[in-house]
TrEMBL record:
Molecular function (Gene Ontology), one example: RNA binding
Pfam families from the UniProt entry: RRM_1
PROSITE patterns: RRM
Name of this protein: RNA-binding protein
InterPro entries xrefs: Nucleotide-bd_a/b_plait_sf, RBD_domain_sf, RRM2_NsCP33-like, RRM_dom, SLIRP/GR-RBP-like
Keyword hit for RNA-binding: yes
Keyword entries, A-Z: RNA-binding
PANTHER family per record: HETEROGENEOUS NUCLEAR RIBONUCLEOPROTEIN 87F-RELATED
Organism: Caldinitratiruptor microaerophilus
Length: 83
């Protein structure tokens, strides 16, 4: 099983591959996705990383508050909420 993590305050220029690599240093990453504006295609400054359940707590502890591209990111377990 997997756990989805919310990642906020991402630098606009961060790529999904950079996000995946940053998190993979702390556990198994299944996917990384950066949310973009539908019209402009620009990053909205947040994304989601899907990780192995057994690694989720360790990854949140390791990555929350870390610098990525010069910005302090926010990491927590994503809420299951769809519009």
């Amino acid at each position: 099983m997997t756990t989805t993590l919310y990642v906020g305050n991402l630098p606009w220029a961060t790529t999904e591959e950079e996000l995946r690599r940053a998190f993979a240093a702390h556990g198994t990453v299944h996917s990384a996705r950066i949310i973009t504006d539908r019209e402009s295609g620009r990053s909205r400054g947040f994304g989601f990383v899907e990780v192995a359940d057994e690694d989720a707590d360790r990854i949140v502890s390791a990555m929350n508050g870390q610098l990525l591209g010069g910005r302090e990111i926010t990491v927590n377990v994503a809420q299951n909420q769809r519009r």
